[in-house]
TrEMBL record:
Catalytic activity as recorded in UniProt: L-seryl-[protein] + ATP = O-phospho-L-seryl-[protein] + ADP + H(+); L-threonyl-[protein] + ATP = O-phospho-L-threonyl-[protein] + ADP + H(+)
Gene Ontology CC: autophagosome; cytosol; phagophore assembly site membrane
Gene3D superfamilies the UniProt entry points to: Phosphorylase Kinase, domain 1
Keywords, alphabetical: ATP-binding, Cytoplasm, Kinase, Nucleotide-binding, Serine/threonine-protein kinase, Transferase
Domain Protein kinase: 16-89
GO molecular function per UniProt: ATP binding; protein serine/threonine kinase activity
Enzyme Commission identifier(s): 2.7.11.1
Pfam families on file: Pkinase
Binding site for ATP: 46
Name under which the protein is recorded: non-specific serine/threonine protein kinase
GO annotation terms (biological process): autophagosome assembly; autophagy of mitochondrion; piecemeal microautophagy of the nucleus; regulation of autophagy; response to starvation; reticulophagy
SUPFAM superfamilies xref list: Protein kinase-like (PK-like)
Length: 89
């Protein structure tokens, strides 16, 4: 199977290549990804389905992002960036 056929159906992002789905929840899917330019290694990208967000869940998401930006602990995934993109998945 070629690399391109493995990524069919995955969201496309400007700076990251999504390689596989790691898990799906109520309003988001987390993907394994690599950065196209920087040497960051493997990262997790959380793609949120805006159509499934209520006003309350959007507020919770923004709070989660704010808190995650401030957290630094060896057992907690570090939030390195946040980007709003549109995809049809």
């Amino acid at each position: 199977m070629s690399a391109s056929s493995c990524t069919v159906g995955l969201p496309q992002m400007k700076d990251y290549v999504l390689t596989e789905s790691l898990g799906t929840g109520t309003y988001a899917t987390v993907y394994k990804a690599v950065h196209k330019g920087k040497q960051k290694g493997v990262v997790a990208v959380k793609c949120i389905k805006r159509s499934r967000l209520t006003v309350s869940s959007m507020e919770n998401l923004l709070t989660e992002i704010k808190v995650m930006k401030q957290l630094q602990h060896e057992h907690i995934v570090q939030l390195s960036e946040f980007e709003l993109v549109h995809y049809s998945s």
